[in-house]
């Protein structure tokens, strides 16, 4: 198997480094043939993986939900440290993948462009029973195809009644009437690491929060998405309607999140 050079600077498989991105994997590994695997993706700042403990905890939970042997935490941490020490990419993206056969595939690639705002479309897409929504599984072809099919940056899954659940790569928030709404961690969504940071910081900043799936858009709403790689990203066009600029409380929350997760400050122009 080959990880393209455009997406991986250095790859480690079960502790062995593969600088050219090529490594062997059995065709019988269900991680390859059926997408039966789990993964985590997190930013690396100054050679330090951000929120690593939380990501490794969720990886272990995903393994349990998917019936995959969970890696030994100490061994995995040692392999991650060795990969980052060998990589020349001090600011990048670390992907941790575990296949159904227990193969541990780590990859580091350059950190991509951060989005300030994006286009999104809401789509009725109830949570399927399998794979479990709380597992970050690798069966994600539909999540890749949906935004491309609708010519947007992100598709927001909704219930049949139009209540927002999550995006294909993000958690979804709506700031409405001075209150922050987001779907609860009730089995219908992936418990986002950055989602957790936002809820913690909103409480610290005395922003009212309701863990309740926000209903269809209303005038003066401010919708935004969160992910480990992007932080907080505003939505400037939702469905076919332009959205207002991000309000001051959410701009302040975005800055606080960057500081909380260790994201480097962008240089002044």
Plain-language structure description:
The longest helix has 15 residues, at 52-66. Strands 7, 8, 9, 10, 11, 12, 13, 14 and 15 form a nine-stranded mixed sheet that branches. Helix 5 (193-204) crosses helix 6 (248-261). The protein is built from six helices and 15 strands. A hairpin with a 2-residue loop joins strand 1 and strand 2 (16-18). It has two domains: 10-110, 2-Layer Sandwich (D-amino Acid Aminotransferase, Chain A, domain 1), CATH 3.30.470.10; 117-261, Alpha-Beta Barrel (D-amino Acid Aminotransferase, Chain A, domain 2), CATH 3.20.10. With 269 residues, the protein is an alpha+beta fold. The radius of gyration is 19 Å and the shape is globular.
Could you give a quick summary of the protein structure above?
By secondary structure, the protein is of the alpha+beta class.
């Amino acid at each position: 198997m080959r990880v393209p050079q455009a997406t991986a600077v250095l790859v480690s498989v079960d502790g062995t480094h593969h600088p050219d991105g090529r490594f062997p994997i059995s065709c019988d590994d269900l991680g390859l043939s059926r997408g039966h695997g789990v993964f985590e993706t997190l930013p690396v700042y100054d050679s330090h993986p951000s929120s690593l403990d939380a990501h490794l905890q969720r990886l272990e939970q995903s393994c349990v939900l998917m019936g995959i042997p969970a890696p030994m935490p100490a061994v995995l941490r040692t392999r991650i440290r060795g990969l980052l020490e060998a990589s020349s990419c001090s600011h990048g993206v670390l992907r941790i993948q575990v296949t159904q056969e227990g193969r541990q595939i780590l990859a580091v690639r350059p950190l991509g462009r951060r989005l300030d705002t994006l286009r999104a479309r809401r789509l009725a897409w109830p949570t399927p029973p399998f794979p479990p929504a709380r597992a970050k599984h690798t069966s994600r072809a539909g999540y890749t195809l949906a935004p491309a099919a609708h010519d947007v940056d992100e598709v927001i899954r909704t219930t049949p009644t139009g209540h927002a659940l999550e995006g294909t790569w993000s958690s979804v928030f709506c700031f409405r009437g001075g209150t922050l709404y987001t779907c609860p961690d009730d089995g219908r969504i992936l418990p986002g690491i950055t989602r957790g940071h936002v809820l913690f910081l909103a409480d610290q900043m005395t922003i009212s929060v309701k863990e309740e799936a926000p209903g269809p858009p209303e005038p003066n709403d401010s919708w935004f998405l969160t992910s480990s790689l992007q932080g907080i990203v505003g939505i400037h066009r939702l469905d076919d309607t332009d959205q207002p600029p991000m309000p001051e409380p959410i701009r302040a929350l975005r800055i606080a999140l960057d500081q909380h997760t260790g994201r480097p400050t962008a240089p002044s122009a």
